[in-house]
C-alpha cells in the first residue's frame, strides 16, 4: 500500500498532521524489533503516496513502539502525535520529518505521569483544541489535561479520586461528537454501553444500554476478538457515526448508526447483513473470505467530503502471504423525516473502479482483476521503459479475469492498463517479484 508491506502486527494512526484537512496515515511495523519500520502515507490522486519513513533505522518515534495518541493539542489545525511509553513525548510533523515538541523526560514528578495508563484525546469542552482524559488505572483518579504554553497542565476537570459515573468505563472508551454539538463525547463500552458528554463542568449521562444485550440491534457486550468499532463522520451532518463490523470466517453483519439526542436513541442509517442478501461492504466480503487479520479505519481523504472507510485483510498467498487494502466512500446520503426524528441513510462503495489482487504478485501466483462498474475488454502490462511486455484481448467482455501470469518477466514495478467496455482506460501499479 503506497510501498508499505502490510503485516498482521502493523498499527495505523490516521491524523491530519500537515493541517490541510486531509488525513495522513502513520504506519508502524509493530513487530517489537529495533529495525521496525515507520512510514507516513497520504492518499492523493487515487493512490497512496509515501511521504516519509525511518527505513527501519530507529529514530525518535521508535522508543514508543505503537503507543501513540493523535490529536490537535495546541489548536493550530494540525494534529500532533503523543508517544506514551516510559517517557511521554509530543511530536509534530514538519513536512519532511518529526520534531520533538515536548516531553516529560521520563519524570515521575510530572502531573501527567500517574494518568498515563489510559489516555483519550478529544475536544470535550468545544474550544477547538483537543484535551487528554487521563486515567490512573485500575482505581486511581481521572483528570483532564490541556496543552498550554508548551506544557501539559491540569485542566478543567478531575474526579479527585471520587466515584463518578464514568469511572467503571475507563478501560474501554471511544471518542466522537455523536450529538453534533461541536464537542466530543465519551462512549464507554463496559458491561453496559453508556454515552457521556461534558457540560456544565461535569460528565453527563446521555444514553445507555442499561444492561440490555442489544446495542440498538447489535449484540452486546461486544465480542472483544471479532467485533470492530469505527468512529467517523460518514454523511452530511455534523455528527459522527458509529460503525460496527463483525470479522472472522462466519462474520455476516455490519451496520452504521447515528445518535439522536432528542429521543435519545441510536438509529440505523446503513446495514449489510446476509439476512438481506447483502453480506458485503460494496465488493468487500464481511466474512474473512479465506483471509484473516481483518481491520478497519476511518480516514478523511478529501478536504470537502465525508470520511472514508479503509479496510485491510491478510490472505495466505505465496510464501509470506499478501494483504488486500481497499478504500470505501459513503454515497447516496439522504434524510427522511417523521414527526419525532430525522434519520440519515447512506450507502458505502469502493473508491476504485478496478481491483487487482494479489498485488504485489510473485512468480508462482496468478493475479485476478475485478471491475466494479464496467466490463473489461483487455489489458496491457507496461514496463518502466514504456514497452508493452504482456497483453490480452478478451473474446467477450468480462467482469473478472483470473489469468494474469507474469512468469517470464523480471522482478520490478509495472503499470497495468485495463481497457473497459465503455471506452475508458484504468491504469494501476503492479509490483512483481520472485
**How far apart are the termini?**
19 Å
The count of strands amounts to: 36
Global geometry: globular
**What about the largest sheet?**
5 strands, mixed
Uncertain stretches of 5 or more adjacent residues: 333-344
What's the arrangement of strands in the largest beta sheet?
A: 30-36-35-32-33
State which percent range the strand residues make up: over 45%
* Tally of alpha and pi helices: 0
Overall pLDDT level:
86
Rg for CA atoms: 23 Å
Structural class: mainly beta
Please, could you describe this protein's structure?
The chain is globular and about 75 Å long. The protein has strands at 11-15, 24-28, 38-44, 47-53, 68-71, 80-84, 88-93, 98-103, 118-122, 131-135, 142-148, 151-158, 173-176, 185-189, 193-199, 202-208, 214-215, 218-219, 227-232, 241-246, 253-260, 265-273, 280-281, 284-285, 292-299, 308-315, 322-337, 342-350, 354-357, 361-362, 367-371, 376-382, 388-398, 400-404, 412-420, 425-433. Strand 9 (118-122) and strand 10 (131-135) form a beta hairpin. The model is unreliable at 333-344 (pLDDT under 50). The protein is mainly beta. It contains no helices and 36 strands.
Fold topology:
Elements lengths: L10 E5 L8 E5 L9 E7 L2 E7 L14 E4 L8 E5 L3 E6 L4 E6 L14 E5 L8 E5 L6 E7 L2 E8 L14 E4 L8 E5 L3 E7 L2 E7 L5 E2 L2 E2 L7 E6 L8 E6 L6 E8 L4 E9 L6 E2 L2 E2 L6 E8 L8 E8 L6 E16 L4 E9 L3 E4 L3 E2 L4 E5 L4 E7 L5 E11 L1 E5 L7 E9 L4 E9 L1
